[in-house]
Amino acid sequence: MSGERLLNFAIRYGFLILLIGMVLFFSFAANGFASPRSAVFVLQSVAITGILALGVTCTLVVDGFDLSIGAVATSALMLSAYSMVILEQSAFTAIVLCLLMGAFVGLVNGILIVKFRVPDLLATLGMMFLLIGLQRIPTQGNSIATGMSLSADSVAEGVFSPAFLWLGRHRFDLVIERLVPVPVVIFLVIALAIWAFLSLTRHGRLMYAIGSNERAAALVGTPVSRYKIAAYMISGVTASIGGILLAARLGRGDIASGTNLLLDSVAAALIGFAVLGAARPNAFGTVVGALFVGILLQGMTMMNAPYYTQDFVKGAVLVVALVFTFYLSSRRGAGGKV
Amino acid sequence: MAKALEISGLEKSFGRNHVLRGIDLVLRSREVTVLMGANGAGKSTLVKVICGYHSADGGSLELAGEPFHPQDAADAISKGVVTVHQSIDDGVIPDLDVANNLMLDRLAKPGSGLFVRERKMRREARRIAESMGLHLDVTARVADLEVADRQMIAIARAMVGDPKLLILDEPTSSLSATEADRLFSLIDRLRDQGVAILYISHRMSDIRRIADRIVTMRDGAVSGVFEADNLDYEGAVTAMLGHRMTEVDIDPVAVDTPILQLNDIVLRQGAAPIDASFHDGEVVAITGLLGSGKTRLAEILFGLAEPLAGRLRLDGKPYAPRSAREAVSSGVFMSPKDRAANAVIGAFDIADNMTLPFLEAFSRLSFVKTRAQRNAADGMIDRIGVVCQSAEDGIGTLSGGNQQKAMIARWLLKPCRALLLDEPFQGVDIGARRDIGRHIRQTAKGRTTIVFVAEIDEALEIADRIVILNEGAVAGEHINRDIDLTRMVAEVSGQQDAA
Ligand SMILES: Nc1ncnc2c1ncn2[C@@H]1O[C@H](COP(=O)(O)OP(=O)(O)OP(=O)(O)O)[C@@H](O)[C@H]1O
Ligand SMILES: [Mg+2]
User: Fold this and answer.
1) Measuring CA to CA, which residue among A159, A15, A67, A338 is closest to residue B373?
2) Which residues cross the membrane (chain A) (predicted)?
């Protein structure tokens, strides 16, 4: 039947076609949109949210949710600034501290959820508040920058090391000089790794099994608790990488930045459900979801749409994606392959 | 007798799979029509079209002489067509309590008032439950109940709506004999009240008890109608399978090496301890009523529960698994009962479902070898006879019985020391049951196989030896050769002393 085939086609490719259509539209309508620089700009603007979104995708796969990613990222931002500017540590130490912090937060989230049976939303919401509060205590709620006064007669003398700033600001040459920023490369590498992990390895397969029927997964001998904790740890680590990159771009411990990170990355992961008709969390979809939002905002900016319409547009995209995912695929019926 | 529902020329396809190929069928009031058919014949699909869940591709339905095109399940219910589906969780809302579940249709009815009056609702729910012989706490969460109770609630819910046509799709597959009896007397009562009933089952004992008329389906078409007082059950089975059913002929194997040993295992407070050995190459059936301790014993052997006292030995060595994981890695496999809750991964295709316990063996450096996985699944699909288009079909597109076959196949993929099958034939048709039984017996060498079944027929078809449990203790044991059935039945019901 052609009706059914059309529906299947719409579910599978609808969102990608929408994406291509949008790129074509902006290429004609917005001057300078179709250029390598603008493409890289889009990538750069989605790199950090994309990295966070890939982490949250892993928790969605085991039928969990991580609301603390935004707070982990801003904590990493503050922690890296604190360790370099106030404790005068090296870039390497700062990065290791941040990654450990992310892994530890993920571990605590996982243990709260698995061992203490706190529902995922509540556990990670609690963790979010805790971290937002905690990152303000050492500096009494102030941002961290070289030269800030610490007590009556001393100022912070440490600096963001050049090696650290390189992470956020260096651009590799690719055909054009100084084209591809480091965060974009890191984003693509993480995306590839998480995609391979989730869809090609047995660990990923077992995590999807846990998300679909936890009891059944446990009864075939899957160490369910371990995988769930691992998912939250992955999410914590990726969030802290996002925070490090943010710190490296800003070059200071800005207490007020990163407010949109949580919602943007969750949106990207949810939009990802619609890509290729997967109807489930998946890394490829998450990347496409992040790009979709990035391209849309970049195109609108270049067409001089006012900044305050951005959230509205993001919301509209999210709703369309969810309709693609849930309404259309519910009409098709159940089941499918990973 | 009045025609309740007339179905003519009904067609339904899923993609290229032509499932219903012109069904003509009349259901009459005051009559129980039993619908028989092999797994995947299209019974549940027919039911889902009648109750408004799927739309038909062709043909027509007439309800009491009027054209009937249900838009959805609610529409069908409001016209008096009430259905209890094969998968129970379609019939209950697990997160709500019993009272809310029983009264749900009333809550959903327009004009039923804005505020829920808890007290009144509970009283009403208790009345309904009691009228069905259900004695349970109406404030309990449905998710916390046993499957059998959940099934009874799904059925009770269907009763609330005052049906004209009641459809029951394999309602007894997870009920024990006593509960099934309660259901049957309820059906008798409804039949006397003038309700037309369509009853789907693979259990011959149900069919003998309840059928006024048998309709058989094969490959999406009606293949036989058997009426009158003298129902030809054998003819019906032949018509549904397309050939005569093969006889099972069991020649109990001689046993020597014990694999799994139970030493003084106590299942429950006050029950006599159990001593037993299960040998290489042997298939043992453990049977008993609901609550006899079958499931408990299976859980202990698989590391999900601990015995009150006693020890287990596997291959002569102490065996004390603390989780399913430990059991599986010691070579003890279990296919649990109630596949929807305990076994099926709804998001996966057949191949991923089958190979799930052995993903490690099907991967290199953690990367899953898709080809090897597919090949293994295809082999099992052929051997067990799973009706599907390919190994890449979503498990949810399979018929209930075929899902069950896939779940058994899962544990036959790799060799093991002890294979535990808890109610392996839930929803499997008679023909396939024999085929699977034969396969299990043929591959029995090298392991010990323990099958937990409530139906004595099933035990007799597969086992070399039958152990009967009653109240947590062994009530009898028989080699499967010239068995004294009366004595066995007495042992099952715990009356052997009186006999
Ligand atoms: N949602 C669906 N999508 C695709 N195919 C389906 C779907 N539902 C059922 N089928 C196919 O339709 C056929 C008939 O399935 P159905 O569930 O009606 O069988 P059944 O007679 O109820 O079998 P059982 O005794 O095992 O319950 C099967 O081949 C099945 O794979
Ligand atoms: Mg069925």
Assistant:
1) A338
2) 12-34, 40-62, 69-87, 93-114, 121-138, 179-198, 229-248, 260-277, 283-300, 312-329
B260 three-state secondary structure: strand
Task: Look at residue B106 and tell me if it is in a domain.
Answer: yes
Ligand nearest to the CA of B386: 1
CATH number at residue A178: 1.10.3470
Question: Of B218, B244, B270, which marks where a domain is finished?
Answer: B244
Structural domain that includes position B101: 3-244
Q: What CA–CA distance (Å, rounded) separates A250 from A228?
A: 33
Q: The domain spanning residue B88 has which CATH number?
A: 3.40.50.300
| A6 inside domain | no
Ligand 1 site, residue B40, Cβ cutoff 6 A = yes
Closest by CA position to B338, among listed A224, A213, A222, A208: A213
DSSP state of B426: T
Domain count, chain B: 2
In a domain, B498, yes or no: no
Write the residue in A4, A206, A212 that is nearest to B347 by C-beta: A212
Residue A235 lies in a domain: yes
Residues A119 and A130: their CA atoms lie apart, in Å, by 17
**Helices B147-160/B98-108 angle, 10° precision:** 30
Give me the tens of pLDDT residue by residue for chain A, a chain 338 residues long.
567 778 788 888 888 888 899 899 999 988 888 888 888 889 988 999 999 999 999 999 999 999 999 999 999 999 999 999 999 999 999 999 999 999 999 999 999 999 999 999 999 999 999 999 999 998 888 899 888 888 777 888 888 999 999 999 999 988 888 889 999 999 999 999 999 999 999 999 999 999 999 999 999 999 999 999 999 999 999 999 999 999 999 998 988 888 889 998 999 999 898 888 888 999 999 999 999 888 988 888 888 888 888 888 878 887 887 777 777 766 654 333 33
Chains A–B, number of C-beta pairs less than 8 Å apart: 98
Ligand 1 center to residue B379 CA distance, Å? 21
Q: How many domains does chain A have?
A: 1
Asked if B343 has any chain A CB less than 8 Å from its own CB, the reply is: yes
> Do both B435 and B288 map to the same domain?
yes
Ligand 1 pocket check: which of B20, B45, B428 to mutate, most ligand atoms within 8 Å of Cβ? B45
Which phi and psi angles does B255 have, rounded to 5°?
-110, 150
* Residues of chain A numbered 232-271 and touching chain B (CB < 8 Å): none
A338 lies in some domain: no
